[in-house]
Amino acid sequence: MLRNLFTVILAALSVAIFAPKASAQFENQRNFAGVHIGLSGVGSALALGLDYERGVTNVGDVGPGIIGIGGLFDYYSYGSNYNYGGQWTYVDIGVSGMYHFVLKDRKWDPFIGLVLGYEAASWTWDSGYHGYITSPTAGGFTLGASAGVRYFFSRNWAAQERIGFGFYILALGVDYSF
Q: In this predicted model, what pLDDT tens digit does every residue of 90-101 receive, in sequence order?
């Protein structure tokens, strides 16, 4: 699955380099859905995720930009050699609010924002005598922030990059607009 996701992202970025001029940008009432891969910030695990966002304001409603609301979902897992070894598994789900800056070059969509989410974690380990045991799921609410940019290589397709904390450190992905 990771290889397929990486192939899709790489193909989309390759198309972006050779695509004709695009004229698109984040707009009110447009939806953006995509996939991403990133560094989780926990044990340097790779996170696989989905994202969705919808424009909810017009230019001028709240300053010179546009506000978008949406959601994120990330899954990541990593192993540990501490205390009999084991495997940590995390599932993050959250809602986001992003502020998009409107540029004259409509191929670029820079944004900043906040994410409020819930993180569930579990740990499976080899107890030695009883085989593998899975801990009860633990979790809690988390607040994150991110900054990023979309680059539109067609009216409906964009490459996306985000940096932040709370959900991921760095994420690269592809979004489809409808």
A: 899 999 999 999
| Per-domain boundaries in the chain | 2-19+30-177
User: Does this model's pTM top 0.85?
Assistant: no
Judge whether 106 and 152 are in contact, CB under 8 Å. yes
Q: pLDDT tens digit string along 121-154?
A: 887 766 566 555 666 667 889 898 999 999 998 9
Instruction: Copy the structure tokens of residue 132.
Output: 């593998």
For 26-88, the DSSP string reads: --BT-EEEEEEEEE-SSTTPEEEEEEEEEE-S-TBTBBTBEEEEEEEEEEEEEEE-SSS-EEE
- CATH number for the domain whose boundaries are 2-19+30-177: 2.40.160.20
DSSP 89-125: EEEEEEEEEEEEPP-SSTTEEEEEEEEEEEEEEEEEE
Shortest CA distance to 90 belongs to which of 161, 41, 132? 41
pLDDT in tens, 55-66: 999 988 988 999
- Please list, in sequence order, all residues whose beta carbon lies within 8 angstroms of the beta carbon of residue 7, skipping any fewer than 6 positions away: none
